[in-house]
């Protein structure tokens, strides 16, 4: 009886094992594909997305936030980053200021930045990097009379500039102004200049007068500032003996500078000691593609040590506190240094001193503004698809886009900057994993799990068959 029962169980196990092996064979040749396990969920998701899109169209408008989500799957292979640009303000032209996260995930030359309107049309833009800075200079130098004489029919008056406190300072002048108590005169005057009071160069001919309440007592020296130390008046037919109570040299100028837009960042960092404490290495992360203006370290310790990055940028930094005096310079200038690495290493030379305690690290970097036409599409025509009521989408992070796009907008950017623009905010910034990375990090594979279960069942059945064979013998 037992032997018969064992034979039956053995036969059943062999048949079941054959079935399992058959299933395993068909699975290995691809009969059971990934679509077998994913077909049902994919259908549900597709139906859900279609419902959302239909609702948006029925309302007669496109919700930008929904547009980001519904296009994410097809765009992730091209762009790894996206953000919503909220349209506000009443100006035709708009601008956004890029964040550190956008720089880190874009091409170094920003060639992969694209702006889309609500209908997916590309919008031209140009990059604005500087803010104009105006500096007014109004300088006055007092002069003293050093000589006067008459020669032929001309009256000569010589003046010298009083030396400034800084003897190395260049004395620049754009005009010369005289003061006199006399009235009722009009005199032609030649103005000469000299560096040594020996060799004279003619500057200009002009007319000085004070007649019937009208006066002109200032002589302009030309389009370029002069650097003479000595000035001479040559006045013809000075029968009235016009004299000057004072003479001043003036320098008036407007200097136009361009200053980079900058932002501050408090990055993540680690501190390591090298060569038994002789060097401190501050490894600052999250700096890929950032144009770094400077790095500042914060510490309460007294020190004066050389600090460098890659032996290219180095400076003696110090933090010295005494009883009544403090000296501090803990900033290393980098002048727009960039790296494609995510980490930059700041080295502090300690020699035989104890390493200093780093409390914080601050990073100052240059930022760019992206300026575009907020009232038109790519063809420059305004309409329902490009009105001020629509939001925009920024996309970036495309390895195939390496050449910066050429837009006509750049040819008249000066006029746009003069007109002004609305600075918009960036919202809903998303960084999508690249397709290869997403596939490599997939945590669950139904087909693999199915095959593992089948193999385990086959092994268990094989063990059972062996045990039954022993019992039959």
What does this structure look like?
The protein has 473 residues and is of the alpha+beta class. The protein has four domains: 1-76 and 435-473; 77-129 and 368-432, no CATH class; 134-258, Galactose-binding domain-like (Jelly Rolls, Sandwich); 266-366, Sandwich (Jelly Rolls). It is built from eight helices and 27 strands. The chain has helices spanning 2-28, 34-58, 64-70, 72-75, 100-104, 413-419, 435-440, 446-472, and strands at residues 81-85, 93-97, 114-116, 125-128, 130-151, 154-161, 175-179, 185-194, 200-211, 214-216, 218-220, 230-236, 246-260, 262-265, 269-274, 279-285, 291-298, 303-309, 313-321, 326-329, 331-337, 343-349, 360-366, 369-373, 392-396, 422-424, 426-431. The strands form five sheets. A nine-stranded antiparallel beta sheet has the order 10-9-8-12-6-5-13-7-11, with no helix packed on it. Strands 15-16-22-18-19-20 form a six-stranded antiparallel beta sheet, with no helix packed on it. Strands 3-25-1-27 form a four-stranded antiparallel beta sheet, with helices on one face. Strand 5 (130-151) and strand 6 (154-161) form a beta hairpin. Helix 1 (2-28) runs antiparallel to helix 8 (446-472). The longest helix is centred in the N-terminal third of the chain and has 27 residues, at 2-28. The radius of gyration is 40 Å and the shape is elongated.
